[in-house]
Amino acid sequence: MQLISRLPALIAAFLIACAPAVTMLVAPQAALAQAPATEPAKPVEAAPAPPKAPPPAATTEKESIENPYGIEALWKGGDFISKGTLIILVIMSMGSWYIMFVKVYEQFKLFRQAREVMGTFWSAGSVQEGVSTLKEGSPFRFVAEQGIKATSHHEGKLLETIDLNTWVTMSIQRAVENVSSRLQDGLAFLATVGSTAPFVGLFGTVWGIYHALTAIGIAGQASIDKVAGPVGEALIMTAFGLAVAVPAVLGYNWLVRRNKVAMEYLRTFSADLHMVLMSGSGKKAGTQPSR
Fold first, then answer.
1. What is the pTM of this model?
2. Residues 248, 254, 255: CA angle, nearest 5 degrees
């Protein structure tokens, strides 16, 4: 009981004894709480950079690079065989185009004359009058004149053994074959060019490859600058050969077909003329050309 009665006094004495220690712990924290907070240092603003100058405008001019392996280089640097092959191909091409234009013009005139025959020749009162209406140099006039000549010059001991019908038929047929032969002029050249031009170009190709191999052998290495020139020359020759041959072949086939149509008109006219000459009348004959 005495211990219990003294307990408050002991607690009070304990608190009094611990007071200095508590004061020492709390005082620094209070000082820190009361101290004003220090402001953080502001960063120094850097000076604005001067504006950059705009880049110079890019030039749009393109440098022209000359092709050292073109046709001009082939003509200047090629030997006489390369130049000769190129000249032959040029001559073949020029000849082919000239023949094609001339033959087309001749066929156009023949088709026009075939249409005119129906309105002039067969409308005449006699064969002589019909011949006078045809133009000079016309194939139809040539056949008609040969037929008239055959009917009026059937004399002589040897010719008398042939009857008049057979003699006139043979004369007209020979005239038609003569016209057909003239229409074929130039087509043989086109056929020759169409069949030989690729081989002429191939010869130039082989010659260019030979130069390439020679350049490699001399240089001792297959560098592109040693091979590009001769190989380019070979390819140009190949292209030239095909460019000459293809138009010649196409033109030949087209002209042959048109010649067949023209000859059909002429043979029809010659057959009708033969019947008129044998009948001795001025009866109209013939059929209207469809072209």
1. 0.65
2. 85
Give me the half-sphere count of Cα atoms (radius 13 Å) on the Cβ side of residue 277. 27
Q: Is the pLDDT of residue 57 over 60?
A: no
Helix, strand or coil for residue 279? helix
Type of residue found at 115: R
What does the DSSP assignment read for 212-267? HHHHHHHHSS--HHHHHHHHHHHHHHHHHHHHHHHHHHHHHHHHHHHHHHHHHHHH
Helix%, strand%, coil% for the chain, nearest 5: 75, 0, 25
N-term to C-term CA, the chain: 156
3-state secondary structure at position 51: coil
Residue whose tokens read 């009070």: 12
pLDDT tens per residue, range 243-266 = 999 999 999 999 999 999 999 989
Domain boundaries, the chain: 71-279
User: How many CA atoms does the CB half-sphere of 53 hold within 13 Å?
Assistant: 3
CA 130 to CA 121: how far, in whole Å?
A: 4
